[in-house]
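Dear Dr. H.,

I hope your travels went smoothly. While you were away I took the liberty of generating a structure for the chain from your last submission, since the lab meeting agenda had it listed for discussion. I wanted you to have the full record in hand beforehand rather than looking at slides cold. The sequence, exactly as received, is reproduced here:
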Amino acid sequence: MGRTAFGDSEVFAQVVEMAHSRKMTVSGDLLFNLPGQSLGEMLADIECGDNIGLDQICLYHLVMFRGLATAWARDPALIAALPGNERAAANWEAIRTTAIDNGYYQATLTNFEKSSFQGDSRGYIYEVRSFEADRYNMIGFGPSGISYSTSDPSRIGLKTMNPESSLEYLQALGKRSPVWNRYYTFDAESQRLLFMTRQFAKLSIDRKRYSDVFGADVMSDYGSELDVLAEMKLIDITPTEIRLTTRGMFFSDTVGSVLSYGRHVRKLGRESAERMSRNGNQGGHM
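The corresponding predicted structure, in token form, is as follows:
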């Protein structure tokens, strides 16, 4: 996957040892569901990461499909060697179980930390807090850095992104103007959707917390979409929380798409009603 320049397993083990001698924690990112990769090889990666002492393992399903703008996606043999969705989801469940059996706990959709870090200040709290848009503003530094800020999470938010190239970023730093060159403004409904998707990245939505922020129960705002997702066995709904199932974790993009689609449909419905109101609803009866 173009990463061999970083070194081999011996180098990685040395890095972990050196970091630990300096009281530093170490994280490693692992891709799974690579073309032609067996489940045994995926599980061996988890075991290897654990054996060399990684404090955090981040597990990422390879996103590759025909039409994606990468060299690998243009290779028919690689595309043909990818597992189907059901096999890929089953692989995820197996490697997630292996990580937990090896003493890691799942902190977010992709991040697994050693159980000794749970509730400890040495844990990777920046990742979790980046998913709490109702509590924390975030500042991104460097090329492609993403920032988010709000003074009222129930009404409005602003997301900005820095220039992608290092040269553009350095040029922007020398100007008397904001460094970022792209932005998106969240309205009140977008803030609710942002809360939902970010909380799902932390695996569950606290229904009381949603109510405290937005003044409504999440089932009142997204009941139809959440019922569909529950029927698909992607989420479990309880009186206190809405939690992703293990299968739902793998298909989290689908969960986000269903929620976003529902928001889009409601917005179109309101706009249509507003147009009818402005026109005086003077059309004939059918």
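Two observations you may find useful: Residues 281-286 have pLDDT under 50 and may be disordered. The chain has eleven helices and ten strands.

With kind regards,
E. W.
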